[in-house]
Amino acid sequence: MKISFKINGDQKTIDVDPNMPLLWVVRDELNLKATKYGCGKGMCGACSLHVDGKLHRSCSYPVKFAEGKAITTLEGLSKNENDLHPVQQAWIDENVPQCGYCQPGFMMAAAKLLQEIPNPTTEDIKQNISNICRCGTQPRIIKAIKRAAELNNAKTS
Amino acid sequence: MINLNKVKLFIFVFFAVALYSFSSLEYKDNDSKADKSLEAFQTVLEVLRSPRCMNCHPSNDVPKVGDDRHAHLFGVVRGADDHAGPVQMCSTCHQDENNEYSLVPGAPHWGLAPKSMGWEGLTDAELGAVLLDTTMNGNRSPEDLVKHMSEDALVLWAWEPGGERSTPPVPLNEFKAALRTWLDNGAKVPE
User: A6, A91, A134, A151: which sits with the fewest CB atoms below 10 Å from its CB?
Assistant: First the structure.
């Protein structure tokens, strides 16, 4: 089945099983490797991306539902490396990743969090992001999200 | 010679007896209709109290999962519009149909019923009162309720939940028949 959508600003049409998880389309059909396979059950959040601005677990999102929509992966969060998204910059500033595998999902969740709650408290972060990091980087993630909020505020003020 | 007074008395008694008989019949008929409605409502209650319905009709802000009705993982809560959020919405994981890859259940407009329609811990009479209260049930008439319970895609998912999930204890066709009987006989609820 042919399915068309925008991904990171580019219009794409693919011909795949309509029930294929969006995760596999992004990684294997479109070669965008930031989005990761973690649990495959919508639990860990490593596969998080945005569809029409909403946060989704792409392992639990049949590609047919993406028809006509706009997808954003971590690769599309900023235009280029000289103009990073505040979340990306904060992740660098705070040296967040350890193994790094789960971080793209965390960053997509963090970007959405800042859209909804521009100055989140620690509790806001814990309540609204349920992604899992087995390396235990959560304290640095919380610091980075607060740093990203500062960068965001500076950018928009 | 005909005694006119006796004739008048006879006519009076005849009509009095007839009137009493008719009104009594009507009364009995109303009683019988109310009984039928209440009996059908007990069948409806069996379904409403099943985990498939009750899990998304919590009285607090926490959706429940499974036949043991445990709290949804990940700290999921009701949110401003009964669809969790604002960051992680129900739709972050649940789509319009069950997902055969992730095994995450799904149906159209997956989410919680409004808090005013929380049924946990209610007696039969309380649940019945809540169902019929238009200030709590989304301004639904009894006809609207029957339509919701017999046609809404998310409600109907309960009978085809997929995986090893249990279905309500009453088959769908019997549930629909009970709803019809309940409605056609006055939409009575226990007092």
Answer: A134
B65-104 residues touching A, CB cutoff 8 A: 73-77, 85-89, 91-97, 99-104
- Asked if pLDDT for residue B100 goes beyond 80, the answer is yes
Q: What is the pLDDT of residue B1?
A: 58
Identify the CATH homologous superfamily for domain A86-156: [2Fe-2S]-binding domain (1.10.150.120)
Is B163 within 8 Å of chain A by CB? no
Q: Which fold has domain A2-76?
A: Ubiquitin-like (UB roll) (3.10.20)
**Percent of all residues in chain B with a pLDDT value above 90, rounded to a whole number:** 83
Query: Is this complex scored with an ipTM above 0.85?
Result: yes
Q: DSSP characters for chain B?
A: ---HHHHHHHHHHHHHHHHHHHHHHHHHHHHHHHHHHHHHHHHHHHHHTSHHHHTTS-SSS--EETTTTEEPGGG----TTSSB-SSSBGGGT--SS--TTT-----TT-SPPPGGG--TT--HHHHHHHHH-TTTTTS--HHHHHHHHHH-HHHHHTTS--TTPPPPSS-HHHHHHHHHHHHHTT-----
Q: Which of A56, A65, A127 sits opposite B75 (nearest CB)?
A: A127
pTM of the model: 0.88
Confidence category of residue B154, pLDDT binned at 50, 70, 90: very high
